Amino acid sequence: MRYRRTMGAAGFALLCAGCGKDAPEAAVLAVRDLGALEFAPAIRGRDGGYSARWGDRSVWVFGDTTLEMPGEDGALWRSSTFCATDDLDASDGLSSLTEPLDAAGAPREFLPFTEEELAFNLAHSDPRAEETCEEDCGARYALWPGPIVVDEAAGRALVFYSKVTGRLGAFDFDMMGSSIAVWESFDARLTRPEVRPGAADRTLLFGADEPSLTSAALVREGMLYAYACACSGLTCPCLVARAALAEATERDAWRFFSDGRWVEGHGEAEPVMAGAPMMSVHWNEHIGRYIALYSEPVSSEISLRTAPAPEGPWSDSAVVFTAEVPPTPEAWPYAGLVHAELAREGGRVEYVTYFRETGFLEGEIRLVELELE
Question: CATH number, domain at 223?
Answer without folding.
Answer: 2.115.10.20
